[in-house]
Specification:
The structure is a homodimer. Chain A is α+β, with helices and mostly antiparallel strands. Chain A contains twelve helices and 19 strands. In chain A, strands 1, 2, 3, 6, 7, 8, 15, 16 and 17 form a nine-stranded mixed sheet that branches. Chain A has a four-stranded antiparallel sheet with strand order 4-5-19-18, with no helix packed on it. A four-stranded antiparallel sheet of chain A has the order 11-13-9-14. In chain A, a hairpin with a 5-residue loop joins strand 1 and strand 2. The first copy, chain A, is elongated, with a radius of gyration of 24 Å. The interface between A and B is large, with 57 and 59 residues.
């Protein structure tokens, strides 16, 4: 996931938009969840998870040490596909963009549920991904987000098999590509736009690291741009008086900073990276800034983007009017570098009712929230989707100090909750 | 030299400040120059230069292929010191900062004249400095500026020796370090502030590539800063609303761009390099800009610098007032990264009179101008100094495509003019 999900949950809590379900009437989903959680088969499934704990850790280490940079997930994808196959799934395959998947067939007549975790990490090729253990902690870039979720899905399959569960639904277990920033949800996008199952998928659950109480049912949308300002350049002294793209960009930033973004639905903007110029004594030929705009509201994101794009030409015009354009004018180019659709699965949707019911029946308080994950794609298409925590407590995601804490009782309780959600949704018997 | 010198000459021409000497009464310097140029010894000296042409080219190639990045001129310095020694100079030595030099003693009672070219190039270590020949052109980073001047000084010494010249003055031939940008005139600064000859030097000539008509008698001063803006950072969505150093920097740039710099003496400013931020979806912890301010007037440069520095705190304050400082305020740090003093050798100074007289008596029209070279240091101290062209026509200085054109008749005529200036100033017999 992007850093967003976890941080967004905090932010939502702070701004009071977190939906606490509080006292409420029991739903049919509550009853189904309660029945499942109390069943003898579920006790066996939990035993399976417990017995698998060390194996899960070993698989996390194995997969973490196969680097998976954005757009280069193939080696890890091949390894994970072999693991899916080893669990006895059918129709195991790799699709055109690199998603790997296999089916656990249902008894028939049920929906198709996708249960996925993403293969890619944010780290470039060549990053040292050797796992280091210190006490109850494992460290390596990418070990938490989202590598730690992949083996949990394998453990789910084994638990279902050992407990003797059948499901009405077909479940497509998957390791998908392209979730992180530059991947721009490429794997999930392909799945729903071109993949062979695209018209069959009714429910979508993506697992990201973290505990089980969080149910991400809103997809924060984002539009990201790299805006490049170009000019004739020149020597700082000899060509003084010519237009400078740095000033045009500064004009744009100053204007951008005045945008009043709505608090509800939460809408934000940011200048993230600045670059440009070649030497202190040259007027830059080009400068650039990367812009991140996000919102939980589709109309609000579109409005902010429109306002931003409309500011660029006046910022450039102002600089072209302020200095000489004898050697050329300042121009700009706004390149879209990220596009994550806004989406939402209503609280009343079956998948959200199931997920929150399982959390409640497990004795926890569900927390709904917004994130920016693979679920954004189905959410934006009106397909029911949630992002859930796969179990491990992780830290420093996206940093070289990334790690996870091994706390078996808590980790296993989280995993059991995730598994119960899948089973309840799949109408397991 | 910095790119400045050549460009400044053009700029000065364009703004009409070029001093054309026009019709004028012959000076004692004209007479001395004319006498020297007509002498039989000077004919021998020119023969020596001509016979040395291929050797000069070979020495240029040899020295170019010994890389000399800023602060890492030692290898080339050692090679050049050996060459100075081979020409029979006395007191050959390397000073504390890396300048290498040797004396050609005079007959006594005369002044001490420094004749130098700089050892350093702008190119970092590891740049491919292998010289490539195409027709009448030689290509390699640094081959022109200022490597092409170093062997010309050696040829001057040989020409003086072969022609049998004695001089009243002592001449200190030198290869100095630290002329280019980051070196910040370190070699020249040391020579005049701490070097063993510091109180004895009466005249200073630095040779840079180019033809002989240009006499740089004004030193454009510069003050350069890297200004870093720091803040608490944060996630673009989760921490939206916190102060962003990019906006503070944009405020400063917009203000900076409004400064009205005096046209006379020419005064300029520039934002040259922008940097900052780590990812599109993070509020930057830090952003930075490098600033170049230059002037041919000392008071004007000081005034511009003062105005610039006074803009920084209000720019920061504006951002701290516009957004939340709950996690920390924006602060700034302005680090001085370049300091070249403004200087000037009056047109009436003996060294300028000699240099322009030699040019005129050689049938050319002298062009006075401003530059930013090693001469800035003595000029700022009131010591007579000029920067002259050593002979070769060079192109694309400071770029990887840097090169020089071999045009023996023209190159040799330029060299002869430079040598005649040194000889006239040294009162050669």
């Amino acid at each position: 996931m992007t850093l967003l999900a976890a941080t967004a949950a905090l932010a939502l809590a702070a701004t009071g938009t977190l939906t606490a379900t509080g006292a409420r009437a029991a739903t049919s989903e509550d009853q189904a969840a309660a029945t499942l959680l109390k069943g003898a088969k579920f006790a066996k499934a939990k035993e399976s998870l417990k017995g698998d704990y060390d194996r899960i850790i070993q698989d996390i280490i194995t997969l973490t040490e196969i680097e998976a940079p954005p757009f280069k997930e193939d080696a890890r994808g091949a390894a994970y596909m072999a693991m899916l196959k080893a669990e006895g799934l059918s129709d195991v395959e790799r699709d055109e963009v690199g998603n790997v998947m296999g089916l656990r067939k249902g008894t028939g007549g049920g929906p198709l549920i996708v249960v996925t975790a993403h293969l890619d990490t944010v780290f470039p090729g060549g990053t040292n991904v050797k796992v280091r253990r210190e006490g109850d902690k494992l460290y390596a870039p990418g070990i938490g987000d989202d590598t730690s979720s992949l083996p949990v899905l394998l453990a789910f399959i084994r638990a279902m098999n050992r407990a003797g569960y059948t499901t009405k639904a077909d479940i497509l277990f998957m390791g998908n590509v392209g979730e992180e920033g530059p991947g721009d949800l490429r794997g999930s996008r392909y799945l729903f736009q071109k993949g062979k199952y695209k018209d069959a998928i009714k429910y979508f659950i993506s697992f990201e690291p973290g505990e089980a109480g969080r149910v991400t049912n809103a997809g924060t949308g984002s539009r990201r741009y790299k805006v490049t300002f170009k000019g004739p350049g020149g020597h700082s002294f000899g060509a003084f008086g010519l237009v400078n793209p740095a000033y045009a960009m500064a004009n744009a930033m100053v204007d951008f900073a005045t945008i009043q973004a709505p608090a509800q639905p939460k809408t934000t903007y940011n200048v993230g990276i600045l670059e440009g110029g070649t030497s202190v004594n040259s007027i830059p030929f080009a400068t650039a800034m990367t812009i991140d705009m996000r919102s939980n509201g589709k109309a609000e994101l579109a409005a902010e983007e429109k306002q931003f794009l409309a500011m660029l030409q006046p910022a450039v015009d102002k600089e072209n009017a302020a200095r000489s354009t004898a050697n050329g004018k300042i121009t700009y180019d706004a390149q879209l570098i990220g596009d994550r659709p806004v989406g939402n699965t209503p609280e009343s949707a079956h998948i959200v009712e199931v997920a929150t019911a399982v959390v409640r029946q497990s004795g926890l308080e569900p927390r709904l929230g917004a994130g920016s994950t693979d679920s954004n794609i189905p959410m934006s298409l009106g397909i029911e989707a949630v992002t859930l925590g796969s179990g491990f407590e992780t830290f420093r995601a996206h940093s070289l100090d990334e790690g996870l804490t091994m706390n078996p009782p808590q980790d296993l309780a989280n995993m059991a909750t995730g598994l119960a959600t899948v089973l309840t949704l799949a109408e397991a018997r």
